[in-house]
Amino acid sequence: MSRTRVFRYAHTPVRVRVRGGEPVWFTRDLAAALGVPFPPGPLLPASPNGLLGIATAAQVRTVIERAGSGTPNGLRAWMTDVSAQLTAPAPRQPALAPVRRSRPARDYGHH
Questions:
Q1: What is the pLDDT of residues 54-83, one digit of tens each?
Q2: Rounded distance, CA 78 to CA 84, Å?
Q3: What pTM value is reported for the model?
């Protein structure tokens, strides 16, 4: 299971993790950041990656729109940015070429 990361939206910490290759958001954190209550039970649209208390981006947008506040543009941009950070492939480290080290000349006492 992937680790949970914390990002700030409107000075409020919001926990996010990747599940099934898709970022999922902790609904309690988003509710605190947005002032929008999330309904109990399953969220729509249904997703195998959404769990109780965790929502996909599509589910977050649906809850906000049903609350009548619409998805703020700042939130949409922030979620897109966070999603890109979480799903970006890890940077590949270039292979290092072996380094030949010169050895000090041994002194065998032959002078």
A1: 999 999 888 888 877 667 778 889 999 999
A2: 10
A3: 0.73
